Amino acid sequence: MTTPRPRRRTRATLTTADAPARTPLAYFIAGTPTSVNRHYARAATGRVYLSQAAREWEGTVRDETLFVRDAVREIGAPLALTLTFIGGRADVDNLLKAVLDGFKHATGIDDHWITRLTVIRELRGKRQAGVWIEVHSAHEYQKAC
């Protein structure tokens, strides 16, 4: 029997300096963004499940979002999210599911309350791999645009 690998613990980095002025909340989650689509596996029974790597990335997003859960809930639904992925080689649409599921499990806000979703993928360069999550009130975001 193998022992589970300990999860790397980091705290979500809160900042408003790197975010646009209209952003009420922005935080960074360090780690390599993982495509959930690529990490589905099939058991001998034919049942499809998430691989260990996909579960770990979703868990990291959930754990880090717990630190800002109250601030996200204060913004209220409906929400507008901007996700900026740094690093990761997957298609941008395949990176979304783990982040949205982790966000949902941490905040209790289902993704049907997200009415605007902006996704950006940047090359890593010298920047740390991870994802910036900006949370806006959809009403205020629409007025600002």
Topology at a glance:
Blueprint: E1 13-14, E2 25-30, E3 40-42, E4 48-50, H1 52-66, H2 69-75, E5 79-86, H3 92-107, E6 114-122, E7 130-137, H4 138-144
Instruction: Write down how many β-strands occur, each being a DSSP E stretch of 2 or more residues.
Output: 7
CATH architecture: 2-Layer Sandwich
CATH topology (fold) name? 60s Ribosomal Protein L30, Chain: A
Structural class: alpha+beta
User: For the residues shown, what is the average pLDDT?
Assistant: 77
Q: What is the name of the CATH class?
A: Alpha Beta
Name the CATH homologous superfamily: Holliday junction resolvase RusA
Mind describing the biggest β-sheet? Answer: 5 strands, mixed
Distance separating the two termini: 54 Å
Please characterize this protein's 3D structure.
With 145 residues, this protein is of the alpha+beta class. The chain has a single domain, classed as 60s Ribosomal Protein L30, Chain: A. 31% of the residues lie in helices and 27% in strands. The chain has four helices and seven strands. The chain has helices at residues 52-66, 69-75, 92-107, 138-144, and strands at residues 13-14, 25-30, 40-42, 48-50, 79-86, 114-122, 130-137. The strands form two sheets. A five-stranded mixed β-sheet has the order 1-2-7-5-6. β5 (79-86), α3 (92-107) and β6 (114-122) form a beta-alpha-beta unit. α1 (52-66) packs across α3 (92-107). The longest helix has 16 residues, at 92-107. The protein is globular, with a radius of gyration of 16 Å. The N and C termini lie far apart (54 Å).
